[in-house]
Design goal:
The complex is a heterodimer of chains A (about 160) and B (about 800). Chain A has a 6-stranded mixed β-sheet with strand order 8-1-2-11-10-9, with no helix packed on it. The termini of chain A are far apart. In chain A, a hairpin with a 2-residue loop joins strand 4 and strand 5. Helices cover about 15% and strands about 40% of the residues of chain A. Chain B is flat and about 110 Å long. Chain B contains 24 helices and 29 strands. In chain B, the strands form 6 sheets. In chain B, strands 10-14-15-13-12-11 form a 6-stranded mixed β-sheet. About 15% of the residues of chain B have low confidence. In chain B, about 40% of the residues lie in helices and about 25% in strands. Classes of the chains: A mainly beta (about 160), B alpha+beta (about 800).
C-alpha cells in the first residue's frame, strides 16, 4: 500500500473509460482527443499484428491499434465492430480500438493502487495501476506506452 | 509607432542581406584587388548602412561602419590596394555590424561590445599603408573625409507603402545628431533613373527640406563630383528588387496546406464526375481539375529555392577557414541554380557547412605537402548539385589526400568502435563508413574548426532524417567526395494506383490498393497467356523477365508484402517496371488502375520502421491507400543491394565498365594451335611474304620491304619453341612499327579482327605474353610486343631511324 498516496490531499482526476474483454480501462481525459464509432480501416501489410490499419480522420491518416492484441487478449469476434478512442501522444495521434466506450468518470487518487507484481508483464507495462471505484476495477492505461510498439516486421535488413 | 517599427524591420532585413553580400564581395575582392566596380559596390553597401544607422541614431554602428568606410574610401580612390590583412579587418567589421544588428533586433539596443579595438585596427591599417595621419574620431572626420554625396538612395525605403514621401521624411525627427546622411535624401526604389529635380547642397548640417507631397519619386541628388559611381549602377538593382516581394513563410505553408486539401477535394469531385451523366457537371469538374493542377504547381514553385542560396555563404567560410588552417583553396560551385524544397534546404544547411569545413580542414593538405606530392599548391573544393532520377544529388569533393583508411581503422580500434578481428575483416567501404560513427574523429587536436568528433554522424543523421543518403568515397592521394542524395519529396505527387489481391485470414479475399510514385515508374508491361508463361523465367532462384534483351528481376507484390497468396485463374500478368537507385526491376501486381495526383501524408512514428511504405494517401472515395517505397521494396526483396553496398557496386560497375571498354583486337594463330591477339592499334600492316623473299642478315631472318630491311621474328619459334608447319606457304607477317623502325612478326595464320573488352587475366605467366583473355569464347594470349622484340634484339629501341 502506498502510504504516500494515502497521505496526499484528496485529489481527483478525470478518466475517459472503455471496455475491453469485459475489463474496464481508463485514460487520462486530457490525452483523449475524441471518441468515434467504427471506421473503415486500410490494413498495413508487414506491420505488427497489433496495428489493425489506418483510418481517415477528417483528412488525417491515423494508425489504429487493436487494444485486444496490444494487451494480449483474445481477438474479438468478427461480428463485433470496435470503437475508436483517439488519443494524443508526444509522437502524434493514434486510435485505440476498444469493445465499448464508457463514460468520463472522476476518480479519487486515494483509491489508486499500483498494479500487483503478478500481473502479466505485457499488461504491467501499459497498466501502471488501478482505481478501486464503485463497480468493477478501473485499470489505468499509460497513453504514451501504448504507441511504443517496439519491433515491427519489415524493418530494414542490415546487409552486413 | 508602427511606422518606425516597420522602418526598423526593413532596415534590419536589408542590412542583413547587404552584409551577406559583403561577405561574398570581400572574398571576391581579395581575389581581384583592383576590381573597381566591386570596390564601388562594397563602398555603397557600407555607406548605406552607415547612413541609415545615423538616421536611426545608432551611434556605435555609425562609428564602426564609418571606420570601415574610411578604409574603403582609400581603396576606392586607389590610395591603397586590397590585401589579405585589409580583407580580414573589413570582414571583422562586417561581423561586428552583424552583432550590433542582432542586438538591435533582440532588445533595441546596440549591445555592450566595445568596438574601439576594431576601429583602431582599421585606422592602424590605413596609417601603415599610407603614412598619413588618420582621424579616428568619426564626428570630426566625417565632413573632411566623406565626399558629400550619396550616389545610392538609402534603401530603407518608406515608399512602397505610401505614395508621398514628403510628410514621412519631414515628420521623423532627428534623434541626436543630424537626421539624414549628410547631403542625402530618402529616395524610393526607383524603377527607372529619374532626372533629378532637386540639387542637394553639400552642407553636412543641412536638414533636407521635405519635398512636396505631390512629387512621388523623390530623385536622388546628382553627384556633386564626377565620381565613379553612377546612378545607372543603382537602377538595375532596384528594378530587380521591384519584381520580388517578401512573404512570410508561415503564410506560404498555410497556403500549401490548403492547396493540399483542395487536391483531395478535387479528387473526390473527379470521382463523382467520372460516373456522372450530367454534362455541365462534368465540364465544371474538368475545369476545376485543370485549375487545381495549375494552382498546385504554382504553389509548389514558391517553396523551391536554388541551392545557391545556401552556397552563397561558403566563399567566406572557405576563405576564413583556409586562412586559419594555412591552406590555399579554390572554391568551385557547379549547379547553384538547382532547386530544392525549402524544408530540404533548411535541413542540409548545417550538414553541408560541416562537410565543407571538414574538406578544408582535413581533406586538403597544406601547400608544402601538396607540392611534395606533385600537386598544385592551391587545393580545389568542388560543390556540385544536380537532379537525377527523382533525387537531388549534392557532392562535396576535394582534391586532397583522400581518406587515410589505415588511420581511421586504427582510431576506430582505439575508441573501441570495432573489435580487432572485425577491423581486419572490414572492407575499405566499411572503414570509410566508420567516419560517420558518433564520437569518431581522427583529428590530432580538436580545433574550433572541426575535429570535435560530433560532425559527420550528425551530418548523416540529419540527411537520413529527410529521407536522404550519405556516402563517403575517397581515392588515396587524390581526394575525397561526399555524396548526398535526397529524394524530392513534394507533398503532392503523381502516382500510379495498382491493386493486389490478398487472402483474408477468415477466408475470402480482398483487393488492396497501393500507390506507386510516378517518379520511379519506367513502363508497364502486360503479358497474356503464352507470352506470360514463356516470358517469365527462373534463374538461380530469382524470377526474371526478359525485357528487350535485358533481364529484369521480378518482385511479386503480394509476396513482398507478405499478403496471403490467392490462387487465381488468370492469364494476365501485369508488370510495373520500376527504377530504384540506378537498378531496375519489375513489380508484378494484380491490377493496374489510374494515375492520380495524391497528397502524401506521413505514416505515424509507430509505422516508420516499415521500409516498404513511403507514406499513405486518401483516395477519392475517402479510403486510405498506402504509398509504396520503391527502394525499400527492392532492398527487402534483395533486388538491389543495400545502401551501404551501393557505392561499392557503383565503383565496381564503373570499374567493370571501364575494363569492358571494347577494343579492336587482331587475333592470329601462332605455332600449331595457339591463339594470340594484339591490339589492332599496334599493327601497322598485314603482309604476305613469299618464302624465298626471306634472306639472312646478321644471324636473323630479314626481308626487303618497302625500301628497307625488315627483321622478322617467328613467333611460333620465339614463344612456343615450335617450328613452322609448312615451309612453302607464304609467310603471314604482322608489321609493327615504332619510331620509324619496323619489325615483322611471322605467324601461322591471321584469324580475325574482333572488338572485345580487354579484361586481362593471368598476367605475365610466360615470356612474350602479357596475359590471357577470352576472345570469341576462347582463351587467347595477349602478345607482349615490346617484350618479344627486346628479347630478340635488345637494342631495337635504342636507335631512332634516320
Amino acid at each position: 500500500m502506498n502510504a504516500a498516496i494515502k497521505r496526499e490531499a484528496s485529489r481527483t482526476r478525470q478518466l475517459c473509460t472503455f471496455v475491453l474483454a469485459d475489463l474496464h480501462f481508463g485514460i487520462e481525459v486530457t490525452n483523449v482527443q475524441e471518441v468515434i464509432r467504427y471506421q473503415e480501416m486500410t490494413a498495413v501489410p508487414l506491420a505488427s499484428a497489433v496495428v489493425r490499419g489506418l483510418i481517415n480522420l477528417r483528412g488525417q491518416i491515423v494508425t489504429a491499434i487493436d487494444m485486444r492484441a496490444r494487451l494480449g487478449f483474445p481477438e474479438r469476434s468478427s461480428a463485433d465492430l470496435p470503437m475508436n478512442v483517439v488519443i494524443r501522444t508526444t509522437d502524434g495521434i493514434v486510435s485505440l480500438l476498444v469493445d465499448e466506450i464508457g463514460d468520463v468518470v472522476e476518480v479519487d487518487e486515494r483509491s489508486y493502487e499500483r498494479a500487483p507484481e503478478t500481473l502479466a508483464t505485457r499488461c504491467r507495462d501499459l497498466v501502471p495501476g488501478v482505481y478501486k471505484v464503485d463497480g468493477p476495477l478501473l485499470l489505468l492505461l499509460d497513453a504514451e506506452r501504448i504507441a511504443a510498439l517496439g519491433t515491427t516486421a519489415g524493418r530494414k535488413v542490415d546487409p552486413s | 509607432m508602427t511606422d518606425d517599427d516597420e522602418l526598423l524591420r526593413e532596415f534590419l532585413l536589408e542590412s542583413s542581406e547587404n552584409l551577406n553580400q559583403l561577405d561574398r564581395d570581400f572574398v571576391a575582392l581579395e581575389k581581384n584587388p583592383t576590381d573597381r566596380a566591386l570596390i564601388g559596390a562594397i563602398f555603397r553597401s557600407v555607406h548605406t548602412i552607415k547612413g541609415t544607422s545615423g538616421f536611426f541614431g545608432y551611434g556605435k554602428l555609425e562609428s564602426l561602419t564609418h571606420a570601415g568606410e574610411s578604409l574603403l574610401c582609400r581603396l576606392r580612390d586607389g590610395m591603397m590596394v586590397n590585401d589579405a590583412e585589409i580583407t580580414s579587418a573589413l570582414l571583422a567589421m562586417v561581423d561586428g555590424v552583424r552583432r550590433i544588428l542582432a542586438s538591435i533586433e533582440e532588445n533595441g539596443t546596440e549591445g555592450d561590445e566595445d568596438h574601439g579595438p576594431m576601429i583602431a585596427d582599421l585606422a592602424r591599417i590605413m596609417q601603415a599603408r599610407e603614412g598619413g595621419p588618420v582621424d579616428a574620431n568619426p564626428a570630426r572626420a566625417v565632413a573632411a573625409t566623406i565626399p558629400p554625396l550619396v550616389p545610392s538612395p538609402v534603401r530603407v525605403s518608406v515608399i512602397p507603402r505610401r505614395a508621398s514621401i514628403g510628410p514621412a521624411a519631414a515628420s521623423l525627427h532627428p534623434r541626436g545628431g543630424s537626421l539624414l546622411p549628410r547631403g542625402a535624401s530618402i529616395a524610393p526604389k526607383l524603377t527607372a533613373p529619374v532626372v533629378p529635380k532637386l540639387v542637394m547642397p553639400p552642407d553636412p548640417d543641412h536638414v533636407v527640406p521635405a519635398p512636396k507631397p505631390a512629387v512621388v519619386p523623390v530623385p536622388p541628388p546628382p553627384p556633386v563630383e564626377a565620381s565613379v559611381e553612377k546612378d545607372e549602377h543603382v537602377a538595375p538593382k532596384t528594378a530587380v528588387a521591384d519584381a520580388t516581394i517578401r512573404v512570410d513563410v508561415g503564410l506560404l505553408d498555410r497556403v500549401m496546406n490548403l492547396v493540399g486539401e483542395l487536391v483531395l477535394a478535387r479528387n473526390q469531385i473527379m470521382q463523382f464526375g467520372a460516373s456522372s451523366k450530367d454534362a455541365s457537371f462534368v465540364n465544371a469538374s474538368q475545369r476545376l481539375n485543370l485549375l487545381t493542377t495549375e494552382l498546385q504547381e504554382g504553389v509548389m514553385k514558391t517553396r523551391m529555392q536554388p541551392i545557391g542560396n545556401v552556397w552563397s555563404k561558403f566563399p567566406r567560410v572557405v576563405r576564413d577557414l583556409a586562412l586559419a588552417c594555412g591552406k590555399r583553396v579554390t572554391l568551385e560551385l557547379d549547379g547553384p541554380e538547382t532547386e530544392l524544397d525549402r524544408t530540404i534546404i533548411e535541413a542540409i544547411k548545417d550538414p553541408l557547412t560541416h562537410a565543407v569545413r571538414n574538406a578544408v580542414d582535413h581533406g586538403l593538405e597544406t601547400p608544402e605537402k601538396r607540392r611534395a606530392a606533385g600537386k598544385s599548391e592551391v587545393g580545389t573544393l568542388l560543390l556540385r548539385a544536380y537532379h537525377e532520377g527523382g533525387q537531388v544529388n549534392i557532392e562535396v569533393s576535394d582534391d586532397g589526400g583522400g581518406l587515410d583508411l589505415a588511420r581511421i581503422r586504427a582510431r576506430a580500434l582505439e575508441r573501441g568502435l570495432v573489435t580487432a578481428d572485425r577491423a581486419t575483416r572490414m572492407s575499405d567501404r566499411e572503414v570509410a563508413d566508420l567516419v560517420f560513427h558518433p564520437g569518431f574523429s581522427t583529428a590530432e587536436k580538436v580545433s574550433n574548426v572541426s575535429g570535435r568528433g560530433v560532425g559527420m554522424d550528425v551530418v548523416k543523421t540529419n540527411i537520413e532524417k529527410i529521407g536522404g543518403t550519405v556516402d563517403l568515397g575517397s581515392r588515396p592521394g587524390h581526394g575525397t567526395t561526399l555524396k548526398i542524395k535526397i529524394p524530392l519529396t513534394l507533398a503532392i505527387i503523381p502516382a500510379l494506383i495498382v491493386t493486389c489481391v490478398a487472402a483474408l485470414p477468415g477466408g475470402g479475399e480482398t483487393t488492396n490498393r497501393f500507390a506507386i510514385p510516378q517518379v520511379n515508374l519506367l513502363e508497364l508491361v502486360r503479358l497474356e497467356g503464352a507470352q506470360a508463361r514463356r516470358g517469365i523465367e527462373s534463374i538461380h532462384g530469382t524470377t526474371v523477365y526478359r525485357l528487350r534483351g535485358n533481364l529484369l528481376p521480378l518482385v511479386f507484390l503480394p509476396k513482398a508484402l507478405e499478403l496471403g497468396a490467392v490462387e487465381r485463374e488468370t492469364d494476365v500478368v501485369n508488370i510495373v517496371v520500376l527504377q530504384a537507385d540506378d537498378r531496375q526491376f519489375g513489380l508484378v501486381v494484380d491490377g493496374i488502375l489510374d494515375t492520380e495526383e495524391i497528397v502524401v501524408k506521413p505514416l505515424g512514428k509507430e509505422l516508420k520502421g516499415i521500409t516498404s511504405f513511403a507514406g499513405a494517401t486518401i483516395m477519392g472515395d475517402g479510403r486510405v491507400a498506402l504509398i509504396l517505397d520503391v527502394l525499400g521494396i527492392a532492398q527487402r526483396a534483395n533486388v538491389v543491394s543495400g545502401a551501404r553496398e551501393r557505392a561499392l557496386v557503383d565503383k565496381n560497375a564503373h570499374a567493370k565498365r571501364e575494363a569492358e571498354a571494347k577494343e579492336a583486337l587482331l587475333v592470329f594463330q601462332v605455332g600449331h594451335d595457339t591463339r594470340m591477339a594484339t591490339p589492332l592499334s599496334m599493327v601497322a600492316r598485314l603482309e604476305e611474304i613469299a618464302v624465298d623473299a626471306v634472306e639472312r642478315a646478321a644471324g636473323r631472318d630479314v626481308v626487303q620491304y618497302r625500301g628497307e630491311i625488315l627483321p622478322l621474328i617467328a613467333l611460333g619459334a620465339e614463344i612456343m619453341g615450335e617450328a613452322r608447319k609448312s615451309h612453302e606457304k607464304p609467310l603471314q607477317v604482322i608489321v609493327y612499327t615504332e619510331r620509324g623502325r619496323s619489325v615483322g612478326f611471322v605467324v601461322e595464320q591471321i584469324l580475325d579482327v574482333v572488338e572485345e573488352s580487354v579484361v586481362v587475366k593471368n598476367r605475365g605467366a610466360r615470356e612474350g605474353i602479357l596475359g590471357s583473355l577470352v576472345v570469341q569464347g576462347k582463351v587467347t594470349d595477349l602478345l607482349d610486343v615490346h617484350g618479344v622484340i627486346r628479347r630478340v634484339d635488345p637494342t631495337f629501341f635504342d636507335h631512332e631511324a634516320a
